[in-house]
Design brief:
The protein is mainly α and about 525 residues long. The chain contains 25 helices and 3 strands. It has helices at about 10-15, 20-45, 45-55, 60-90, 90-110, 115-130, 130-145, 150-180, 190-200, 205-210, 235-245, 250-255, 255-280, 285-310, 310-315, 320-350, 355-385, 390-410, 415-430, 435-445, 450-465, 470-480, 485-490, 495-515, 515-520; strands at about 5-10, 225, 525. It is globular and about 65 Å long.
C-alpha cells in the first residue's frame, strides 16, 4: 500500500485551461537562479582542471573522477531518500537546506590540499545538490498545468547551461587574476583555483535566505489530484536512507526474508566482481569502487521498493517505457557532460588558449546555446506531445543524434574558431533533449511519486552520464596519451541511446494510458 492517498478532486479550472499565476513565474525564476548556482558550483572544476592537475599532481582519469564520479555517485544515492523527502515534506525548506550545504562544501573545496580532501568536498557538494531537482520538479509540476510542463521544466533546466557557461567565465577570470596578483605570498597561501571555489561558494549561503521565503503549493493541485501530506514525513526518508546506504542495505534486504537477503548478497557479489575486474584493467580503484557502491545501492533500493511501495515500483522500475526513457536520455547526458567538461582542458592544453579566453568563448556561447536549445526543445516537445503521445521522445532522439557530429569536430580540430563554433552547436543540440525527457518521466507517475521519479531520472543522468562519461574520456586519454581520442570515445553513446529511445517511443503511449489502472493493480488507493 502507498503511504499517502491520492484524492482525485474535481477541478474544472485545472481540467479546462488555467491561466498560470504570476507567482508561479516568479517562483520559477528563483528556481532557475538556484539551478544556475547549482551548476556554477558543480562545473567550475572544468576551467580549473589544468591548474588543479598541476598543483596536486593528478592524471586525467582522476580529474574525471573528481568532476563526475565523486560528485555523481553520491548525488545519485542521496537523491533517492531526498527525493522521497521531497514527496512528503516541505519542498521549499528542503531546497533551502540543500543550497546552504552544497554552497558550504564548494567553499571548503578551496581549502583542499590533496586529492583525498578535494574528493570529500566534491562528495559534499553532490549530497547537497541532490535536494534541488527532486524538489524543483515536483514544485514546478504543481505550479504549472500539464500542457505547459515541458516548457516550464525546460526553463528551469536552462539554469544548467547558464550555470555551466557562467562557471567557465567566472572561474577563468578569477584564476588568472588571482595568480597574476599573487604570484607569491597569496592570502592564506591560496592558489587561484582555490580562491575560485571560495568566491563562487559563498553567495549560495545568501541566496538560501531568499529561497526560504517561497510559498509551498498544494501537492497535485494543478491536475485536481490533491495529495495530503503524510503524518510522519521523515519516516519514508529514513527508510529510503537505510535502504540505499551500504551496509545498512542488508537490514532492508533481511526484512524480505532469507530469499531477499540472499538475492541482495548475490547482487553485491556480481556488481562487486565486475567493479573489481574494471579496477584491475584500468588501475583506477577509487573510480570503480565508487561505481560499484553506487550500482549496488541502487540495486538494493529497487529490490526493497517493490515490497515497501508496490505502486511506485510498478510505475517506475516495472515500466519499460520509464526505464528506456531515462536510460536513453542518459546517453545524451553521457556525451554532453563529458564534452562540456573536457572542452576547456582541450582548449587550454591542445589549442594553447589562456583560461580566461577559453572560459569566455566556451562559457558564453555554451550558455547561450544551452539556453536556446533547452527552451526550444521544450517548446517543440510540448508541440509534438499535443499531436503524438510519444512526440516528446522525438526531440530527445534529435538531441542525441544532432550533437554527435559537432562533438567529433570539437575533439579533432586544431583551429580555435572551428572548435568554439562546434562547442556552441554541440551544446545547442544536446540541450534540446532535456525538457522532453524530464516531462515524459513526470507524466508516467502519480503526483505523490514525482520526487522519487525525478530522483530515478537523475540516476541515469548521473550514474550513467555524469559518473561514466567524463571519467571514460579521461581514462581513454590517460591510456592513449591523447585527449582527442578520449573525447571521440564518447560517440559510442549514439547507437546505444537510439535503440533505447526507439523502445521508449513505442511503449510510452500505452504506459501513460494505463497509469491509473496499473497503480490500482499494485495496491494504490484512489478515489474517483
Amino acid at each position: 500500500m502507498s503511504e499517502a492517498t491520492d484524492q482525485a478532486v474535481p477541478d474544472q479550472a485545472a481540467a479546462a485551461d488555467p491561466k498560470v499565476p504570476a507567482y508561479s513565474w516568479y517562483a520559477l525564476t528563483i528556481l532557475v537562479i538556484i539551478y544556475v548556482l547549482n551548476f556554477v558550483d558543480r562545473n567550475i572544476i572544468s576551467i580549473l582542471a589544468e591548474d588543479i592537475k598541476a598543483d596536486l599532481g593528478l592524471r586525467d582519469d582522476q580529474i574525471g573522477f573528481l568532476y563526475g564520479t565523486a560528485f555523481g555517485v553520491f548525488y545519485a544515492l542521496f537523491g533517492i531518500p531526498l527525493g522521497k523527502l521531497a514527496d512528503s515534506w516541505h519542498r521549499v525548506r528542503l531546497m533551502t537546506a540543500g543550497l546552504a550545504i552544497w554552497s558550504a562544501f564548494t567553499a571548503l573545496s578551496g581549502f583542499a590540499k590533496n586529492f583525498a580532501t578535494l574528493s570529500v568536498a566534491r562528495i559534499g557538494v553532490g549530497v547537497g545538490e541532490a535536494t534541488a531537482s527532486p524538489s524543483a520538479y515536483s514544485l514546478i509540476s504543481d505550479w504549472f498545468p500539464k500542457k505547459m510542463r515541458a516548457t516550464a521544466l525546460a526553463i528551469y533546466a536552462s539554469g544548467l547551461y547558464i550555470g555551466g557557461g557562467v562557471s567557465l567565465l567566472i572561474g577563468g577570470a578569477i584564476v588568472e587574476r588571482w595568480n597574476a596578483a599573487y604570484p607569491v605570498d597569496a592570502p592564506m597561501g591560496l592558489a587561484g583555483w582555490q580562491a575560485a571555489f571560495i568566491i563562487v561558494g559563498l553567495p549560495g549561503l545568501l541566496l538560501a535566505c531568499l529561497v526560504f521565503t517561497l510559498r509551498e503549493p498544494l501537492r497535485g493541485e494543478s491536475e485536481g489530484i490533491i495529495t495530503p501530506p503524510p503524518k510522519d514525513p521523515f519516516r519514508g526518508f529514513l527508510r529510503e536512507l537505510v535502504a540505499v546506504i551500504p551496509p545498512f542495505t542488508l537490514i532492508g534486504a533481511s526484512k524480505a526474508g532469507s530469499r531477499g537477503l540472499l538475492l541482495n548478497l548475490a547482487g553485491a557479489l556480481v556488481i562487486g566482481g565486475i567493479a573489481y575486474v574494471m579496477a584491475l584493467v584500468t588501475e583506477n580503484y577509487q573510480q570503480w569502487g565508487a561505481i560499484g557502491i553506487g550500482y549496488y545501492a541502487i540495486f538494493s533500493w529497487a529490490s526493497t521498493l517493490e515490497r515497501r511501495d508496490a505502486p511506485t515500483f510498478r510505475l517506475i522500475w516495472g515500466t519499460p517505457a520509464f526505464l528506456t526513457t531515462i536510460l536513453g536520455y542518459g546517453m545524451v547526458a553521457f556525451m554532453s557532460y563529458a564534452a562540456s567538461f573536457w572542452a576547456a582542458p582541450y582548449a587550454i592544453r591542445i589549442l594553447e588558449e589562456a583560461p580566461s579566453t577559453a572560459g569566455w568563448w566556451i562559457g558564453g556561447p555554451g550558455a547561450l546555446g544551452g539556453f536556446l536549445g533547452v527552451i526550444g526543445g521544450g517548446r517543440a516537445a510540448d508541440w509534438l506531445r499535443e499531436r503524438n503521445p510519444a512526440g516528446r521522445l522525438i526531440v530527445v532522439a534529435f538531441g542525441l543524434v544532432a550533437a554527435a557530429p559537432f562533438l567529433f569536430v570539437m575533439f579533432t580540430t586544431q583551429d580555435t574558431t572551428t572548435f568554439y563554433v562546434a562547442a556552441f552547436l554541440q551544446s545547442l543540440f544536446a540541450s534540446s533533449a532535456l525538457g522532453g525527457a524530464a516531462a515524459t518521466t513526470q507524466d508516467l507517475v502519480l503526483p505523490r511519486m514525482r520526487g522519487t521519479a525525478t530522483a530515478t531520472f537523475f540516476l541515469a543522468t548521473t550514474l550513467v552520464g555524469l559518473a561514466l562519461g567524463p571519467y571514460m574520456a579521461g581514462q581513454v586519454s590517460t591510456m592513449t596519451g591523447s585527449l582527442s581520442t578520449g573525447g571521440l570515445s564518447l560517440l559510442v553513446a549514439v547507437p546505444i541511446g537510439l535503440i533505447l529511445l526507439i523502445v521508449a517511443y513505442r511503449t510510452v503511449p500505452a504506459a501513460e494510458q494505463t497509469l491509473l489502472a496499473r497503480a490500482r493493480e499494485a495496491g494504490e488507493e484512489l478515489e474517483d
